[in-house]
Structure formats: C-alpha cells, structure tokens
Amino acid sequence: MSNSQMTPGIAAGRLSTDQLAENFDDLHAPYAPHEAAVAADRCYFCYDAPCVTACPTDIDIPLFIRQIQTGTPKAAAKTILDQNILGGMCARVCPTETLCEQVCVREVAEGKPVEIGRLQRHATDALMEDGLHPFSRAAATGKTIAVVGAGPAGLACAHRLATHGHEVTLFDARPKPGGLNEFGIAAYKSTDDFAAREVDWLMQIGGITLKSGQALGRDLDITALQQDFDAVFLGVGLGGVNSLRAAGEERGGVRDAVSFISELRQAEDLSTLPVGRHVVVIGGGMTAVDAAVQSKLLGAEQVTIAYRRGREDMGASRYEQDLAASHGVNIIFNAQPKEVHGNGAATEVEFEYTASKNGTLTGTGETFRVKADQVFTAIGQRLDEVPGGLRIEQGKIAVTGAGQTSLTGVWAGGDCATGGDDLTVTAVAEGRDAAEDIHARLMG
C-alpha cells in the first residue's frame, strides 16, 4: 500500500476536469507574430552583449532577435539551435530572469528586460511547427559512441556527434527519453507533450539508435561499453533522492517530490491524481516550487514550503518564489524539519527555527508545527549508481576540460558531473562541448 493510499486526507478529483485544464494551461502564452515584432524592437542589439555572456550555451541573442525583427523567425531558430539544440525547451524552462534577462541593458536601465525567453520560443516554435530540421549529417566516420542517459546532456551530445557523422547508441533507463525535460519539470511549463515532440524532432538528424529500459549498473557495464564503443558519454543525471533524516519520515503521506512530479507529468488524466488538503513541501529549489504550485493547482487547500535557510539562499529564483506566492503557497524560511507527527499517517510536521552563526546553520530550540496530510521532500538528489573506476567528487562524477572523466575514453556531463548548476541549459552546453571533444579525439 502506497503512502498516499494510507492517508485519508489525500484524494483525487478535488477539482473538475475543466478547472484542471485551465490551471495547467501554458504558463506563458506564445507570442503572436506582431507581439514578437514589438518585443524584438526593444532590443538595443548591443555589441559585446551581456546577455550572450550570461547564456551558458553562448547563443548570439542580438542576432536572433534581429532576425525575428526582420521577419525571419526560422533563421533566428537556426541561430539558436546551432548553439542549443534544445532551445525550444530551454525557452520554456530556463531561468532567464537570473541569466540573460537579468543583465539585459533594458533591465538595468528600465527594470523591464527584453523578453528573450519568449522570443526564443517564438523562433524555435516557428521552425518546429513546420517539421524542419536544419541540420544534416557529415559523411560517415565509422566511429561508434555510447551515450548513456537521454536527458538534456545526452540528447545534446548525441545530436552533435550524429552531425559529425558518427553512429550513436543512446541508452536510457526509463521507458521514454527526455530525462528531466520529460519527467521532472512542472506541467504548466511544458504543455502539449512538447518534451516528447522535441526529442522526436531532434532524432530526425539520423544516426542515433535509442535503447530504452537500459540502466547503468543494472543492464549496462561501463567496462563493456568501453570495449564495444569508440567512446562513452555519461549523462545519467541524479536518480537517487536524499533522505529527510527526520523522525517519522516513514509515515503515510510522505514521499519525494521528484516522483510526484514525474507521476503528474505522465498522468493522462489529472483528475485521477491524488493530492492532500494540507500539503507541506520541504526544500528550497525549483523542484520544491514545482511540487508546491502543482499541488495547489490540483486542488490542495493549504500548501506550505519550508526551507531551512533564508530567502537569499533559496535555490529557486525570486521569480519562482513569487510565482509560488501568487498561487497561494506560503513560504517559511529558516525552518528545518524535526519530526513528522501522526498515527501511521502524517498529520503535522514539526519544525525548528534556524539561525546562521559564523556561517554555520544551527537550530534555535524554538519549534512550531504545520498541519499536513501530505509531505513532499525536495532536499536534493544524488547519483543512483556510481560506475566502478570513476573518480567521484562531492557525490558527482569528477570531470576536467570538456567533460573528461578519470577513465580513458569516457566523458560525462549534466547533473551527474561536477561543474554544472543543475540547469537544462547548462546540461545542453556540457553535452555539446563533450561531443566536440569526443569528435576531436576520435578524428585525431
């Protein structure tokens, strides 16, 4: 029996199908052509533009905005996709408010940046809606590469390798590709099955064979992959979830937020997805916000995020915090979980207030309780399987340069590797750069 089944306060169908459809509609409606033109006109087309420097994938942002301004959005899409093959998804989920838009000259001068993310979506949607794939493969090299993990890093790596003429076998543990884009992002950020459609579009390059249900350590051995392929790229993400390490975490109604979001993203009918009346989310990152907001959209009456540090340390951006607040989510800072109370099933969560002294977080001894029939933990993830022979640093695969690991012929990138910041756009950049390094090494 699952935790949710053990808890009477958790139920499905709190809202009507029509209300759920409205709640989970596109967070930001796409631009109409005239709106895109007006938005593009606001760009100063800066020389040495700070927005380009702030973009992890180094997209030439002034160029693609000028291409939109001149009425050639598909050319703008090619400019974007040359650097970021998952530019469509990144336009939807990238925290532009802390990257390119934060340093926009318009933002600095007027407090309102050029809406770079929405313009990027306008361009990439225009190209993808026509089914166009503006890339072709180079002559076959005869080289074969194994890419393990079909998330953003693995997909970007596989596509770039395929364009160079290599044969790529793309392995993934799940039944369908996409990684966090498919299973781990709030449903209102990626509507109409966009993640799957983007993967299908990407695969049009050819030269990539997808093998699903293949997990590293269970079905795949890294030594065997080294022997069977000319190179190996690991983009396996962080499959494990950290324990709450608080008394009572085994009670009914307590589960990790990652699996909740995955279940929601794959649900064909949201009215069948159970949610509590009083939901508590423990954590301070994007996953915590996504779980909290979607709980509210499913019909939860009271939703609270509790984070052990202050607002300025929260992993979720201020924009995401404000988004949660706008949906009625209460955020409590400087509160760490002490115990989940209840008789078998959760009824309350007890927290202790915290304070930072000399850079060290300590409990103050003052406690309080929050009513909860459903508790989501969003306190970070870890490597699910550590392949033998790989050097590990701070719980991730240690890499140097463009993703080179401690094993000969093995590269890594994305959330599973050191150096990243757990963003889709960063994972894409790391997969792309590793592919270029692999190509250079294989071709001598």
How do you describe this structure in short?
With 444 residues, this protein is of the alpha/beta class.
Tally of DSSP β-strands: 17
- The name of the CATH architecture of the largest domain is 3-Layer(bba) Sandwich
Classified in CATH, the superfamily of the largest domain is FAD/NAD(P)-binding domain
Number of helices: 17
SS class = alpha/beta
How many structurally independent domains?
3
Q: How much helicity do the residues have?
A: 25-40%
CATH fold title of the largest domain? FAD/NAD(P)-binding domain
Oligomer: single chain
Which key features would you list for this structure?
five-stranded parallel β-sheet, 3 domains, globular, Fumarate Reductase Iron-sulfur Protein, Chain B, domain 2, 18% strand, disordered N terminus, FAD/NAD(P)-binding domain, alpha/beta, 35% helix, 444 residues
